[in-house]
Write a structure and sequence with these properties.
- By secondary structure, the chain is an alpha/beta fold.
- It has two domains: 127 residues, Nucleotidyltransferase, domain 5 (2-Layer Sandwich), CATH 3.30.420; 158 residues, 2-Layer Sandwich (Nucleotidyltransferase, domain 5).
- Helix content is 39%, strand content 22%.
- The chain contains nine helices and 13 strands.
- The strands form three sheets. It has a five-stranded mixed β-sheet with strand order 3-2-1-4-8. The protein has a five-stranded mixed β-sheet with strand order 11-10-9-12-13, with helices on both faces.
- Strand 6 and strand 7 form a beta hairpin.
- The chain is globular.
- The relative contact order is 0.15.
Length: 303
């Protein structure tokens, strides 16, 4: 079985043909301008999808950044872009003629990690995306936990600073996303040096010994660990898995993440916790979209 997988991110869109075993057979990537709107996104998706041999696929899976309603197929809201109430499922169904599954991108990554990655034999874990935003997903007793309104896992909106922290896209101040995601790393480095660089460029400087860049990543890692400690104390997971673009430089973050856990985590209750990088690499979200398509195809076949 072949699946059409679409990963919508904060700064890029990826679409690909993925085999049922997780092999990415063909893919295209398109950069997304900051603050893209729904019309631009629909045009971008159409261009990407029609460049692929999607007619041979059994279903479509699409991941979206922000709040999603898998039952209605609606992209509810994205703090980073401001998109809200976009019926992306109907759009893709009309475009491809295929059944469509939609999910929050981090939830989808967690599903993919369970099916293809380091969590195949783990029933209780949290998955955290570090990118232009920060999001989380929770697996409990071998199943994705959605919460009362389907929005569990929003670790990016745990307050890690006081009320004088940076304003977040959600409207609050001091959220983890506003203080430690990629744009926040850029802002913090600029605040200290007067130079505006991408988080990736700052990571390269840190790896080359730039002390300010190192300190900026240490700060971000500590705040991530502080938020993670709260989640760990409540959920008692066996693993905390990190993905997203910033996880490519996870070695810059991990020591201070673990340092914050030492300070804030109830250690006697969480002795088995391991903090690891995703086993799915750059394609985690795309493979997450593929897991949605697999489920949608199986559900359609069983009707």
């Amino acid at each position: 079985m072949k699946l059409l997988a679409i990963d919508i991110g904060g700064s890029k869109l990826m679409a690909g043909i993925v085999a049922e075993n997780g092999e990415v057979m063909d893919s295209v990537r398109t950069e997304l301008a900051p603050g893209y709107d729904a019309d631009f996104l629909r045009d971008t998706i159409k261009t990407a999808v029609t460049s692929l041999p999607y007619a041979q696929c059994s279903a479509v899976g699409v991941t979206v950044p922000g709040l999603a309603d898998p039952d209605s197929g609606m992209w509810v809201y994205a703090p980073f872009s401001g998109i809200e109430n976009l019926d992306i499922s109907s759009f893709l169904s009309s475009l491809t003629g295929l059944p469509v599954g939609i999910e929050n991108d981090v939830n989808a990554c967690a599903l993919a990690e369970r099916q293809f990655g380091v969590c195949k034999d783990v029933d209780d874990y949290v998955w955290i995306t570090l990118s232009n935003g920060i999001g989380g997903a929770v697996f409990i007793n071998g199943a994705l936990y959605r919460g009362a309104s389907g929005n569990a896992g929003e670790i990016g909106h745990v307050n890690v600073c006081d009320e004088d922290g940076r304003r977040c896209g959600c409207g609050m101040h001091g959220c983890l996303e506003a203080e430690a995601a990629g744009p926040a790393i850029s802002e913090e480095y600029e605040l200290r040096t007067g130079r505006r660089l991408t988080a990736k460029a700052i990571a390269e400087l840190a790896n080359d010994g730039d002390t300010t860049a190192v300190e900026v990543y240490k700060r971000a890692g500590f705040l991530i660990g502080k938020a993670l400690a709260s989640a760990v104390n409540v959920l008692n997971p066996g693993l905390a898995v990190f993905g997203g673009g910033l996880s490519n430089d996870f070695e810059l973050l991990q020591p201070s993440i673990e340092g914050a856990l030492e300070l804030y985590m109830f250690k006697n209750a969480n002795k088995e916790l391991r903090v690891v990088k995703t086993g799915l690499g750059y394609n985690a979200a795309l493979l997450g979209a593929a897991t949605l398509a697999i489920k949608k195809a199986n559900d359609s076949n069983n009707k």
